[in-house]
Specification:
This protein is α/β, with parallel strands linked by helices. It is built from 15 helices and four strands. The protein has a four-stranded parallel sheet with strand order 2-1-3-4, with helices on both faces.
């Protein structure tokens, strides 16, 4: 335990949606309402990135996850894992631990089952699991999977990152999600399969999570027939496009992870079977061996982001603005010199 306080939330359930951003996590989080799970009222508003809504609790996102990530030196999105031991060793996290406890008390004051989603959560999941343990909550998990190339293209549109980095982030969200939820009630849900047959996927989720709540027929109808919109799945890649795309050679482990997760999502494999254990042990070994490279790529990304911010700061500075005429004149003179040089080269060429 990271803290000694105890509160009376025993027997209540908290449902956590895990997955990489741009993987359908928002749509899947919204589905929890149809399962009778309360999402609270402090939700982020929809915008052009997510016209149907993010379905993220603003207090979780801005009041806890962002601060915990910064305290641990993590960027907004990270590739890696965090141990529970490291959580307990961080004195600066104790205040956020208490804050999270108080937030849970408020959110669950009038419900027995509350859920939240934030793609950042997987990077700090041991922090939340320590909070759940203190609160004596029954934590259960929905792990969202989307074709990694689709998720990478969608993520690239908003982040501006290379596809390779987006694939690393996809891998870095899903491998820790499976590893950190071992022994918990959990279910894997495919965004693509949800769009194809929402009623079936909702029943799967309710069964896998063994929810104490009842499915709301009205909410199921609204979600399946009104909320879900296949047109919002703008980046679509079939299995052949995924395996043949040259970028997959950079992060080939994505293919193995995706294959196993889709078998779980289709109920062709179960978490408790030897087949899953053997497949996942192989994946985990390969992930651990490759992690130093992924960590190095993340550090380079962080340095690049820092330099971009510094350059942006320079461009907005007073000194940069006041010297603009001199830079413009210098640029014009350089262009004029290049023009003269090219003219002389052509004159010499024709003179010969």
């Amino acid at each position: 335990m990271c803290a000694t306080e105890r509160i009376h939330l025993a027997c209540k359930q908290v449902i956590v949606v895990l997955g990489k951003s741009r993987s359908g996590t928002s749509a899947i989080a919204r589905s929890l309402k149809a399962l009778g799970v309360d999402l609270g009222q402090s939700l982020l508003p929809a915008d052009h990135r997510n016209p149907k809504g993010f379905w993220e609790d603003a207090d979780v996102l801005y009041g806890i996850n962002r601060h915990v990530s910064r305290a641990l030196g993590y960027p907004w999105m990270t590739v890696g894992t965090l141990s529970k031991a490291k959580v307990c060793e961080q004195p600066e996290l104790k205040a956020y631990h208490r804050h999270a406890i108080h937030l849970l008390e408020r959110r669950m004051a009038s419900t027995d089952c509350w859920g939240f989603k934030d793609p950042r959560t997987v990077a700090i999941l041991p922090f939340w699991q320590a909070v759940f343990e203190t609160a004596q909550l029954d934590d259960r998990y929905v792990i969202v999977v989307r074709n990694p190339l689709e998720a990478a293209y969608s993520g690239q549109k908003f982040s501006g990152q290379d596809l390779e980095m987006e694939l690393l982030l996809w891998l870095g969200h899903l491998v820790p999600a499976i590893h950190a939820t071992h022994g918990k009630k959990r279910g894997v849900v495919s965004y693509q399969l949800m769009l194809q047959n929402a009623h079936l996927q909702l029943e799967r989720m309710h069964l896998a999570l063994a929810l104490a709540t009842q499915m709301d027929a009205g909410e199921v109808h609204v979600y399946a027939d009104t909320f879900l919109d296949k047109k919002l799945r703008r980046n679509q890649c079939d299995e052949e496009s995924l395996t043949d795309h040259p970028v997959m050679a950079v992060v080939p482990l994505c293919l193995k992870v995706y294959d196993v997760l889709m078998k779980l999502a289709r109920d062709d494999m179960q978490f408790e079977t030897e087949a899953f254990k053997a497949a996942w042990d192989e994946i985990k070994v390969e992930f651990d061996q490759s992690y130093p490279l992924y960590h190095y790529a993340r550090s380079l990304q962080g340095q690049n982001h820092k330099m971009k911010n510094e350059l942006q700061g320079i461009h907005h500075s007073f000194s940069w603005k006041i010297t603009y005429p001199l830079r413009a004149l210098h640029g014009a003179l350089r262009a004029y010199r290049r023009k003269l040089k090219n003219q002389r080269r052509l004159e010499d060429l024709y003179a010969e």
